[in-house]
Design brief:
The chain is an alpha/beta fold. It has one domain. The chain is about 35% helix and about 25% strand. It is built from nine helices and twelve strands. Strand 10 and strand 11 form a beta hairpin. The longest helix is centred in the N-terminal third of the chain and has 16 residues. The chain starts with a helix and ends with a strand.
């Protein structure tokens, strides 16, 4: 039987978040659960702790909605001697929740060796039918934008959605070059359902000599000004919620005026 305290906490989380995340929504959420110690203590074990957050978001999006969680493994990066990405076995490098999702029966993973995603809920086929460009046309981020998906930063120290690289690449390809990033080709093996194939993938990567780092102050200010971003506190942790279309539109407008809209010099 589910712990009564867990039930109450879950109900409270859903009550707060349901004002901004509706049934049927597509939600892309980047999690950092390290500071949610109260829930960890009440849950008493790691499985129940992680399931708490998964169940909250699946309840929010409902049976027709989709939850997307990053499973980034950077498997073909320059620091990897062997360029292998096993969709079913390669561990993500970004936290306990994505690792917990590996090989869960109700979850599918995209075949991107650098920036894979776990898809829960509805639309699994749509979001896993991707091209070979992590932040380009027919990528997961492209599909999130087409579905007017919601971007959620959950417990992170700062507002830093990876979706920004989709916006940057779109601008770079359609308007003007952003010289602090470029389209880089990665090659290696992908293993899926015991089948191995050698493939190329493209990622809009940071230039090696670039002195620029991401800074979200400008887009946060713009989104705040037009009331298109929500900042919440749950157990003293920051939660940011913004529609991907609003982020994209403001981001493109910002880059048209200032090609360093998303970055500052280190």
């Amino acid at each position: 039987m589910e712990n009564n305290k867990i039930k109450i906490l879950k109900k409270n989380f859903i009550s707060v978040l349901s004002k901004y995340i509706k049934k049927g929504s597509v939600v892309y959420c980047e999690f950092d659960l390290a500071k949610f110690n109260t829930i960890a203590l009440v849950a008493k074990n790691k499985k129940k702790f992680i399931n708490f957050f998964i169940e909250v978001f699946l309840e929010l999006v409902g049976k027709n909605g989709t939850l997307i969680v990053p499973g980034f493994s950077y498997s073909w990066g320059k620091n990897r001697k062997k360029k292998f990405f096993n969709i079913h076995k390669t561990k993500p490098e970004i936290g306990i929740l994505p690792n917990y999702l590996l090989n869960k029966s109700n979850v599918v993973r995209t075949r991107d060796p650098m920036f894979s995603f776990f898809i829960l809920g509805s639309n699994k086929k749509y979001f896993t039918n991707i091209g070979n460009n992590s932040f380009g046309k027919n990528s997961v981020f492209h599909k999130i934008l087409k579905k007017k998906g919601i971007l959620v930063s959950f417990g992170l120290n700062r507002f830093d959605p990876t979706f920004v690289h989709y916006v940057e690449q779109f601008f770079d390809e359609n308007y003007s070059k952003l010289h602090y990033r470029y389209l880089k080709k990665f090659s290696g093996h992908i293993i899926s359902n015991k089948k191995k194939s050698y493939e190329d993938f493209f990622t809009f990567s940071k230039a090696e000599n670039s002195k620029f780092v991401f800074d979200g102050k400008k887009i946060k200010t713009k989104l705040n000004r037009i009331k298109k971003i929500t900042k919440l506190k749950l157990m003293q942790n920051d939660i940011f919620i913004v529609n991907s279309r609003d982020f994209f539109d403001i981001g493109i407008k910002g880059l048209k005026k200032d090609r360093k809209f998303f970055v500052i010099k280190r």
